[in-house]
Amino acid sequence: MIRNEFKEHSRITITWKDKEGKLRPGNFYVYALLKDAMIVRATDKDGLLRKLAFSDVLRVVKFQDVAPQDRYMIPDEILKEANWKDRDVMVRYSSSPSRGK
User: I need a surface site. Which of 34, 49, 65, 79 has the fewest CB within 10 A?
Assistant: First the structure.
């Protein structure tokens, strides 16, 4: 897949390839698009922030835009590409203030 096929602040259901090369289904919220990857949060599993390479996404099953009032917010500093240079996963629990979290 390529970067232009994705959009920030959207929900996607995809088939992706994990580090062991196994195909996995996944539901993700897309926070940011980087040069070769995107920062996502799994909405159906552990809730960790992940850097998911565009090349690891094999198929997009469903795509849904998220309305501004329903978006999850994370500080921009966390989403900068420099912070993700040497990591693939980050534990972060903040979300939208309107959600009470």
Answer: 65
